[in-house]
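Hi team,

Filling in the usual template for the complex we talked about on Friday. All components are listed, including any nucleic acid strands or ligand strings, so the model treats them as one assembly.

SUBMITTER: L.P.
PURPOSE: interface mapping
COMPONENTS: two
RESIDUES: 582
SEQUENCES:
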Amino acid sequence: MKFHVQGVGLLVLLVATVGVFFVALSSGRVAGGGAALWEWMLGQGDPLFGRVVLELRLPRVAGAMAVGGLLALSGALMQVLVRNPLADPYVLGVSGGASFGAILALLAGASGFWVNAGAWLGALTTMMMVFWLAGGIEAWERGSRLLLTGVVVASGWGAGVSFLLYLLPDERLRTALFWLMGDLDQGGEAFWAGFVLLLVMVLVWPWGRALNLLASGSMRAAGLGVAVTPLRLLLYLLATLAAAAAVATAGSIGFIGLVAPHLLRLLGYTDHRWLLPASVLLGGGLLTLADLVARTVIAPQQMPAGILTALLGAPLFLWLLRRSRP
Amino acid sequence: MNPLLELHGVALGIGARVFCQDLQWSVAQGECWGVLGPNGAGKSTLLLALAGLRPILNGMIRLNGRPLDQWSRRQVAQNVGILFQDQEYLFPATVFETVLAGRYPHLPFWAAGSVEDQLRVEEALSTMGLAHLAQRPVDTLSGGERRRMEAAVLLVQSPRLWLLDEPTNHLDLAYQLLLMERMQAACRAQTGAMIMVLHDINLAARYCDHFLFLFGDGTSGSGTRTQMLHAPLLSRLYGHPMQAVPHRGGVSWVPD
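RESULT (copied from the run log):
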C-alpha cells in the first residue's frame, strides 16, 4: 500500500536529515571532521574543538534545522489554506512585515535582539492586518480573497522596505541586505524557533486527515463533515506563526517553503499526515545543507544561506517535475 | 414517524435574486425526487442549502425532525451526502485515497481507516467500474471516470439523504443508467431518500417518483410524477413548448 511507502520514505528522510546534521556539526574552519566529532562526543578530543561545536556550530545548525522545518511546514499549510499550489510562507505578507520591522530597528540604531524583536512585531502586525483586511474568515470562502489581500499587503511592505533601505546609512546597509537574503549568522534564537516548530506540529498534525479533505475543496470538506471555518482559522494562525518565527530567526529565506512540500508531493506524498513531518525533515535538511555550503565553500568568508537554497533546490525540483510528466 | 426532510416557509436566494419563497416541502424515506428548472433557477443552491452548506434566507429545514442548524457538520455528513456539480483537484491524490475520504464522517477523530473501510472502498470502486484505476492519480482520469469516482465517494459515505447535482454529467448513456441504478439500490438499502437535479426530463421520469419544479421567477411546485409531468407545466417550466410522444406504453418528452 501507498501508506507504507510514505512511511518508509519518512524513515529514509529522517536518517538523511540526521546525517546532514552531524556532517554540518563536524565541518567548518576549525578542522575536525567526523572522526574528531566522534572523539569529542566520547569525551576525548580537543576541548577547543568541543567549544567550537557547542557554542558556534550547534546553535547555527539547530537554527538551520528549525528554520528550514518551519518554512516547509508553513508552506505546506499555506498551500492548503489558500488552496493554491503556488502559495509559500511569505505569500500572506508575513515576511514583508517582518523585514520592515527588522530594518526599521536597524535604522533606529538597534542591533541583535532588537532586530529580531522588530521582525516579530512586523510579522504579527501583518498577521492581524491581513486577517482584518480580508474580511474575516467567513469571507475567505469567496475565491482568492485572502491570497489577494496577502499579496497586495506584501507588495506594500516591499515598497516600505525599499524606502527604509534608501534611508539607511551605508555602514548598516550590508547588515540589512544580509538580513533580507536570509542569514543564519545573526545569532537568532534557535531555541525559540525549535519550540514554535514543535508547537505548530503538535497542534496541526492531528488534523492531517481533515487537511487532505480541505485540499480537495472547502465545499467537499464541509460536505464530508469537516468544520471548515475553525480549521481554516487554526491553519491561518499556525502557518503565519511558523513563518513569523522563521523570518524573525533567520531573515527571509525563499524557496524552501514553496518547494519542500511540492518535492514530496511529486515523490508521491499525498496524505498530509505523512506530508507534514516529511516536509519538516526535508526543509530542515535542505536549509542545513545550504548553510553548510554557504559557510564552507568560500571560507573564511560566509555567504547568506538564502542565496544557496534556491541554487541547490531549483535543479532538483525541476528535474523531478520534468520526470513526473504524466 | 418524521419525514426524513421537511422544509417550512423556506426562502432561498443569492444577493438580490430570489429562487423560491415560502417553500413547503417534505421528503419521506423511499422517495426519489427530481428537481427540474431552467438555468439559474436555484437548483444547485437548493441542494447546498439542504446539505447545510449554504444559509437560507428564511424559514426552517428539519432533518429527521430536528432543525438542520442544530446538527454538527459531522452529524450532517453522517446523514446527508452530496454529489457536487463540479469538483476540481489541485493537489495530487490517488483514486483510492479520494474515495476512502468518504468514510471521514464515520471515523473516530484519531483512528485510521480500518480493513472494513478499505473493503467498502474496493466494493464501491468495482460497483462504479473503477477497480482497475484504484492507484491512478485523480488528475489523470477522464471526465466520466472522475464522475464515477465522485459517485463512489458517496457510496462509501452511505448517507440516508442523497443529494445529486446533475449526477450524469460527463457520462455516456450506459454509465448514466448504471450510475442511477447503483445509486438507487444503495439508497434503498439505507432506507434513505434521494433528491437529484437533472436536465434530462426522460431520465428523470424514468427514475424519479416525485418532482419539485423551480420556475426561476421565485415560484415553485411539487407533487408526484403523474401530477407534475404534464405538457403545459413543463412548457411553462422551460419556457418552450414540450410535447409527450408515446413510447413503449409510456411517454417520452421532446421539445416541440
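MY TAKE: Residues 173-189 of chain B form the longest helix (17 residues). Chain B touches chain A at residues 48, 51, 53, 72-78, 81-82, 84, 87-94, 96-98, 101-102, 104-105, 107, 109-110, 135, 137, 139-140, 157 (CB under 8 Å).

Thanks, L.
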